[in-house]
């Protein structure tokens, strides 16, 4: 009896019963595919039923609770993870700190760097407080040498920095080009699966998408993490993309300091500005988590051309909200410089923070602080309505854990929410108190 071979090399036709990163026949990388032509004798192909005991996926803690959360509980042995990010964002630093943590937990780690020399990595390790003998190093420019080193050392984790710096002599194209990056990644995936070595590779993305792209690698790897932030500020976010072992959309927050990356929880950074004029609490969603973040605003009357300047907020959205607060809620803002920031270096893109920005502006314009212990949630529409947003329950939950007693928002059903339909209603506290100070047209609507 003849049965079909499951796999074969597209280069030399060698048939295989098991997938391999490199063809044992001709040595080509990434050429093993489902066989469409050949046959093989039944003795070579073992066919079994699927009745296996499914054990809970083993997880290795990374020493960063946020990274464990993003990974879905920790690092899975034999998994392949891509850490993507712009140059200079801190990928190599994060990688080295992860290796430091894992090796401190007794797991062997091998770093293959094609970006930096052993001396450079050693110097950085010292700066990060990682003992020089904790992590093994090999040059990461030649793919076969890296694969060989990993075969020899059999580490728990092979870190490759970066996938773009590897050269596969069997593949064409320029180093860092799509063909090279793909064949190198395929070889590393093969290595991970055959040897049960976890592989963590960095990949550069450019601002305008990707050149020889991590995005073209997404299908090959198990997990994609992207490391983001403003290179000029210390704030960094590790966001989970594709994840074969967990949920997408989780995030972890870091701050880059002189001695490396420190994990932070923006919720802890709820600044003490609460209760001061110009300050309002927003409840943005970051991945699947809600956060409490303080929005601060300053309104400075001017005779010249009015400036609008924001940090951590979307500038266009801010202008729109300012226009609504001015025109429809009756707080004159046109002849003033307007400034707004999200405190703690957090970046807010969530439209659910619109109402908090409006509240900070109204508060800054009138000099009246929002009611104590209040947060604001809702998207602001051009007609001055407050629109419902997703995840209201979670946002209110976070407000509660932060000790905030009330949330102004567009949800009439959610417990703990003070229902508001319009921006004027939500800013009633500023309007009423503002009249006493003069200069502000006030709205007679008050929250229900
Ligand atoms: P790096 O990890 O080299 O970025 P990538 O690998 O993504 O290109 O780090 C980039 C920046 O981080 C670099 O400009 C210096 C800074 N840095 C710190 O501020 N503190 C530190 O402890 C380290 C190691 C780096
Ligand atoms: Mg680097």
Architecture overview:
The termini are far apart. It is elongated, with a radius of gyration of 27 Å. By secondary structure, it is of the alpha/beta class. Helix content is 25%, strand content 24%. It contains 11 helices and 25 strands. The relative contact order is 0.09. Thymidine-5'-diphosphate binds at residues 85, 87-93, 124, 127, 256, 258-260.
Secondary-structure blueprint of this entry?
Elements: E1 2-3, E2 7-9, E3 15-16, E4 32-34, E5 40-41, H1 65-71, E6 80-85, H2 91-104, E7 109-113, H3 118-127, E8 136-139, H4 143-153, E9 157-161, H5 178-195, E10 198-204, H6 214-217, E11 223-229, E12 235-243, E13 251-257, E14 260-264, E15 279-282, E16 285-286, E17 289-290, E18 293-301, E19 308-311, H7 315-327, E20 336-342, H8 354-366, E21 374-376, E22 379-380, E23 386-387, H9 392-401, E24 406-409, E25 417-419, H10 423-426, H11 428-437
Parallel strand pairs: 6-10, 6-11, 7-8, 7-9, 9-10, 15-21, 19-20, 21-24, 24-25
Antiparallel strand pairs: 1-5, 2-3, 2-4, 11-12, 12-13, 13-14, 15-18, 16-17, 18-20, 22-23
The chain binds thymidine-5'-diphosphate and magnesium ion.
Magnesium ion binds at residues 91-92, 115, 161.
């Amino acid at each position: 009896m003849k049965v079909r071979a499951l796999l074969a090399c597209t280069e030399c036709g060698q048939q295989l019963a098991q997938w391999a990163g490199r063809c044992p026949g001709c040595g080509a990388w990434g050429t093993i595919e489902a066989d469409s032509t050949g046959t093989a004798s039944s003795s070579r192909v073992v066919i079994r039923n699927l009745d296996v005991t499914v054990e809970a996926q083993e997880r290795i803690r990374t020493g960063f609770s946020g990274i464990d959360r993003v990974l879905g509980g920790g690092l899975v042995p034999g998994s392949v993870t891509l850490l993507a990010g712009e140059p200079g964002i801190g990928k190599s630093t994060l990688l080295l700190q992860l290796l430091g943590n894992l090796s401190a937990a007794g797991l062997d780690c091998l770093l293959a760097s094609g970006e930096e020399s052993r001396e450079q990595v050693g110097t950085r390790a010292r700066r990060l407080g990682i003992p020089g003998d904790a992590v093994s190093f090999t040059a990461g420019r030649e793919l076969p040498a890296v694969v060989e080193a990993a075969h020899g050392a059999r580490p728990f984790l092979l870190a490759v920095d970066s996938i773009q710096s590897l050269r596969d002599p069997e593949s064409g194209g320029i180093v860092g080009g799509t063909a090279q990056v793909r064949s190198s990644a395929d070889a590393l995936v093969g290595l991970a699966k055959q040897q049960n070595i976890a592989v963590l590779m960095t990949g550069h993305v450019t601002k305008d998408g990707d050149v020889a792209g991590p995005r073209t690698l997404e299908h090959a790897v198990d997990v994609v993490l992207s490391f983001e932030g403003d290179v000029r500020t210390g704030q960094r976010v590790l966001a989970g993309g594709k994840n074969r072992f967990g949920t997408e959309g989780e995030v972890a927050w870091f701050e880059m300091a002189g001695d490396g990356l420190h994990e932070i929880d923006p919720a802890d950074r709820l600044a003490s500005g609460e209760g001061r004029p110009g300050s309002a609490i927003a409840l943005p969603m970051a991945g699947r988590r809600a956060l409490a973040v303080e929005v601060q605003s300053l309104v400075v009357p001017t005779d010249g051309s009015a400036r609008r300047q924001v940090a951590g907020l979307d500038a266009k959205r801010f202008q729109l909200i300012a226009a609504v607060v001015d025109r429809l809620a009756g707080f004159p803002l046109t002849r003033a410089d307007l400034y707004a920031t999200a405190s703690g270096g957090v970046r807010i893109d969530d439209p659910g923070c619109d109402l908090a920005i409006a509240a900070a502006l109204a508060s800054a314009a009138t000099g009246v602080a929002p009611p104590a212990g209040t947060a604001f949630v809702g998207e602001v529409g051009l007609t001055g309505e407050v629109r419902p947003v997703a995840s209201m329950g979670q946002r209110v939950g976070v407000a509660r854990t932060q000790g905030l007693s009330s949330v102004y928002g567009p949800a009439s059903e959610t417990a703990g929410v003070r229902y508001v339909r319009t921006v004027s209603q939500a800013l009633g506290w500023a309007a009423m108190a503002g009249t006493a100070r003069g200069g502000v047209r006030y709205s007679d609507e008050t929250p229900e």
